[in-house]
Fold:
Amino acid sequence: MSDTRPTDRETACFEAGIKFGSLYHQFAGTPVSPGSADSLATAMEAAIENQPHCDEVVVDVHEDRLREELADGPADYTELTGKFVDVDIYIDYEGIFVHAHMRMTEGYPLMDVVEVRE
Amino acid sequence: MSDTRPTDRETACFEAGIKFGSLYHQFAGTPVSPGSADSLATAMEAAIENQPHCDEVVVDVHEDRLREELADGPADYTELTGKFVDVDIYIDYEGIFVHAHMRMTEGYPLMDVVEVRE
Amino acid sequence: MSDTRPTDRETACFEAGIKFGSLYHQFAGTPVSPGSADSLATAMEAAIENQPHCDEVVVDVHEDRLREELADGPADYTELTGKFVDVDIYIDYEGIFVHAHMRMTEGYPLMDVVEVRE
Amino acid sequence: MSDTRPTDRETACFEAGIKFGSLYHQFAGTPVSPGSADSLATAMEAAIENQPHCDEVVVDVHEDRLREELADGPADYTELTGKFVDVDIYIDYEGIFVHAHMRMTEGYPLMDVVEVRE
Structure:
């Protein structure tokens, strides 16, 4: 019979998921341009690192993808969506380490657990 | 030696976490009053249920807590924060069922895995 | 010499702008599908109508545009952006009526004051 | 008979309002602490300055108010709300300059047009 209480590994993965959902839905829609990409990435990292059990957040806002998007239209900024960012999040929960990331996969920003270590 | 790949139970918990972070950071800050609480709760449920592996979302926006908050000031609406809502989320990932919830605990909106079942 | 204090008409237009920025940046990024479009539109209207001097908000989430977007990919939901919604906002500030709207124009969700009446 | 079309001054005020609503509802709810306040303020300024006709945005996240809030509880971060920030926005629309600001007034974050100049 499997236990219905979460293990520490499972709770650590739950915590990793919270950070991804928070980061994405807090900042999606933010006006962004090649010139403001760095300050946004820095703020996203520092904001989510405030959350419990969050060891490190690495956000890469791809200025080249922003430039490509803007080359086709009259505007000089767009809205942040998953297609412009890679994210890596590192959780430390009770000695369990979780690395999860977000990457564009077949046109969608997929969030996955990369590894769980004790 | 423990495996570093996530189990299905761990991935199911990760998915539950994503939904909580998404729900909270998408809707926190929304102008809300006793009269608009129901429509907001309904929209929050339907929005997050769109996400993958999300079986059901139950959002309770407490009109009594809104009324109490508003009784002390001149405004007739406030901004949505965790102190006004209870949330239950039910995940079904590859036959693993996760129930997680958000409840106010000592003044903070804590998100926890309630149970994991196969 | 022009006065530097805002007139009531100008303040009414400022209030209209606040409502548009609020609506757009609160709800952009929300997971949405043809099935959840109605509940989201209703919640957006009720939420923003809470704000001061806001007489009426009319949000039309275009289910046909959502269906067209989703026809091309593997997912059955997307994120709310301006290309899926028309918005009309009606302000009443000190007897000044402002009607403003958001419409897709050459690929961009433009927000404009339609009319100001006393 | 007053004209129902907006004047340039009125449109400039509408644009100022859009920026305030955008800034507030994009960033309200962001996890923030004294240590992350500066990076968040910088990102808010750069993000909103991307928007059309937006000359300058000045955001002051009050670290002292954050420290005071956090002194009473067990957490070392909170969520961004109006009570922690002052905002000044400067619009230049067709030669019309609008300065608007957000300040806490009797417990509420009020947004006002400070001056309109040609």
About this structure: Chain A has a mean pLDDT of 95. The helical segments of chain A are 8-27, 37-49, 63-71. Residues 55 and 91 of chain A are 5 Å apart (CA to CA).
